[in-house]
Amino acid sequence: MEPLVFTPSLNLSLVPHWQLWSQLRDQVGGRLYESVPFAQPCYDEFNSSACVGVRHSYLDEVSRTNTPTAFVQSQWETCQATQEHCLLDWSNPDNDAPTHAAECKSGSLPSYYINVQTADDVKAAFDFSRKTKVPLSIRNTGHDYKGRSSAPGSLGLWMHNLQEISYTPSFAPRGCSAGRVTPSPAVTMGAGVRWDEAHTFADKHNITLVGGSDKSVGAVGGWLQGGGHGALSNTMGMGADRVLEFEVVTPDGEVRVANECQHADLFWALRGGGGGTFGVVLYATVLASPPVTLQTLIFSWGSAHAHVDENLNRTREAWALFADASVALAEEGWGGYATKDVIVLVNPEDPSTFEKGDSEPEGDEEVMMWKGSAIAPLIKWGHSLRTKDRGVVLIQKVFPTWLSFFNVFTSKFVASVGKNLALSSRLVPATSLSTPSLREGIVGALMHANTVTTSPGVIILMTTPYSFPDEEKRTSVNRMWRESVWHVTNVEAWAWNATAEEVRGSYRRAKESLGKLKDLTGGTDGGGAYVNEADVYEEGWERAFWGDNYGRLLEVKRKYDPDHLLDCWHCVGFEREDERFGCYLDV
Ligand SMILES: Cc1cc2nc3c(=O)[nH]c(=O)nc-3n(C[C@H](O)[C@H](O)[C@H](O)COP(=O)(O)OP(=O)(O)OC[C@H]3O[C@@H](n4cnc5c(N)ncnc54)[C@H](O)[C@@H]3O)c2cc1C
Predict the structure, then answer these.
(1) Residue 369: its pLDDT value, please?
(2) Looking at the domain 294-400, which fold is it?
(3) The domain 165-291: what is its CATH number?
(4) What is the pLDDT of residue 1?
(5) Which of helix, strand or coil describes residue 29?
(6) Ligand 1 centre from 70 Cα, in Å?
(7) pLDDT under 70 in the chain at which residues?
(8) What sequence ranges are listed for the domain FAD-binding PCMH-type (predicted)?
(9) For ligand 1, which residues put their CB under 6 angstroms from it?
(10) Exposure of 29 by Cβ count < 10 A (0-12 exposed, 13-18 middle, 19+ buried)?
(11) DSSP 116-130
(12) Distances in whole angstroms, Cα of residue 48 to Cα of each of 54, 87, 101
């Protein structure tokens, strides 16, 4: 698909190193483009048809994902340190005030980007960066919450157009001798494939892939290389658990096949060590599983008719029941999401395996359907609530495939797009939920979190690989993921014209909102957070994101990228002084 903003107006004679830029343009077959901010047409002429198109798609995730200069959290298009930007008002993109308030500036966008189509494009970019010291940035969908896919003045590598996808019923990693690895069904995807595309492809081939909760997150880029969790991860593993092979261009310009048999150190590092760090991945091959049918609970208790205190009580009660049940739910195979007013849980396991709990709920068919399951008390409570309030929704349903569930889920739960957003994250180990008083403390900390940020945005993600042990330590994700039953996030947003101090305040509130939870789940020394969804200013980030794996990851980084051609914020080997981080605020 062509990007919405696509202006090959490169005037190279005005650019430092212009001969090298010119040479680069020739090396990449002319696919070197100047970055033009997404909303530039609106700053040129607000009523132009081009601007109407931008306004219309400003909050649309697929449009942003497919546009090389638009990012899902729009602050990563801006220079937060200097306040230069080219934003519209996300609360009303038809408001022309931003275009009168300031000039359109390219903020933290790369100066130029390559529309990557071959390994030679990437090799040329590494050579160019080595000679000119122009930093590189790698961008796939632009979903990153921490700004790791843009950098001011950089040469951007836009991976979107690597769109190949293929299914191999019996895939053997290259270079493995016969008998070393058992061949398995697998899907090979180019770096630009999104999760909605991957799941649609899988469905056609009657197989299941494990992806996240969002349709336009990339399947191969930051999601996969940072760990990658989803509603099936409890029993089927994280994305990183399921990779069989990467094809990657390392900073020395070599195309390497990394799997269990070749470049095993690089393979391990790419399975959780983070995107944008060890090389530019062109393709990944991931395990394909047989089709799944999903037992599903969709329970929404928030009510427009209920008093605000009543809704708060319901949130507390639902979360308390969820906390009581979560370890048992994880053991039964459930995964999913809970917010202040909804719980969605899915289970790919046969429901007959649930019938091992103590509870023997009596009564209606809905409760009896999963009789004995740890989920029964939650359903029983939901049912009693519904008899009092017809606004309560309680659906128990079997989806015949992952795609049928995913399509419903992503149509109902659409993430924030086009906003300035700060996030924070905590992993919640099972031990933190092991006694009633610990659970009470955790629920209190979650309720507190929703009072600190300006709108209650806590999400409890039951997407950890609790029932998927990795005894051989084949991935580099923080081991704490496997001991945890929840990953919790919270968000804070700010307006297009917020001052630098207001922006700092938003980052601080996102952090502080999960502070109590952090204290109850290991603190700075022993706690964990998800590298892809963490506080931008996470303290002790090396340990929080990778635990004991950080030292080994740093060795791999030094081996494959000794000249530090790649770097990103709080990535393995991160160096704050680098000019590419000049747009981050000190908070
Ligand atoms: C709405 C939304 C929903 C989300 N849902 C989930 C979820 O359910 N589960 C989950 O685990 N995470 C989720 N995330 C977080 C997601 O994992 C991260 O945002 C991730 O960084 C996205 O990767 P990307 O490649 O799509 O994005 P990008 O922003 O393009 O890239 C992210 C990082 O990966 C690097 N990178 C990208 N492509 C390559 C490549 N080919 N080679 C090397 N490095 C590369 C970039 O340089 C950058 O550092 C969600 C995020 C959003 C905004």
Answers:
(1) 61
(2) Alpha-Beta Plaits (3.30.70)
(3) 3.30.465.10
(4) 38
(5) coil
(6) 14
(7) 1-14, 352-369
(8) 106-291
(9) 72, 138-145, 148-149, 159, 191, 212-214, 217-218, 220-223, 225-226, 228-230, 275-276, 280-281, 415, 532-533, 568
(10) middle
(11) --SHHHHHHHHHHHH
(12) 10, 17, 19
